[in-house]
Amino acid sequence: MKFKLLTLPLVLLTISTLAQAEPLNVKPGLWETTTTIEKRSAKPPNNLDKLTPEQREKVEQQLAARVKKETHTVKSCLKEEQINSGEAFAGGTHNGACTHTFATQTANEQIASLDCKGANPMSGKVEMHSEDPEQMTGTITMTYGPNDKLQLLTTSEITAKWLGSDCGKVDNVAPSNPHGKKAD
User: Fold this and answer.
1) In the chain, domain spans
2) How many Å apart are CA 89 and CA 111, to the nearest integer?
3) Does pLDDT of 150 surpass 90?
4) Of 15, 47, 66, 113, which sees the most CB atoms within 10 A?
5) Which strands make up the sheet holding 135-144, listed edge to edge?
6) How many CB atoms lie within 10 A of CB 166?
7) Which bin fits 134, alpha (ψ -120 to 50), beta or left (φ > 0)?
8) How far apart are the C-alpha atoms of 53 and 116, rounded to whole Å?
């Protein structure tokens, strides 16, 4: 009986949380998304403390020089179903290898964690904000690679604007996909 009494509040809390989740307040249709991506090594070498101050400074400068920034602008067709499911903002499942969990899902903000297993593991956080139905901004932080090997860390800053309800011949890609690859 105790188990049933403890389970009922958890079920009600889950139902309440699901009922409160709402899609981001953005319009379906053609969007132009500009993403600036910064790529760098996720972990500094573990022997920095053994170096002289001069050696350490040189290594840190070399690491800083390896940071790469690139900007991409793509047009994407955002469908009503993608908005309602949150898929457009949290990413797809990549053939079942990835799961996403929403921490916040309101009309003005969606925050989700992404965890991908398999040959190309990655994990991170996606934050999307809607100032109004025709504008979005966001940040994506991702770590690529297994924990016991060299990892790549990316930070992406996203701005998106709605161009119209007609997508024309623009393919279906998600605004959180900076390279314009087709969403799965």
Assistant:
1) 2-164
2) 9
3) no
4) 113
5) 68-78, 29-41, 152-164, 135-144, 122-132, 109-116, 98-105
6) 9
7) alpha
8) 38
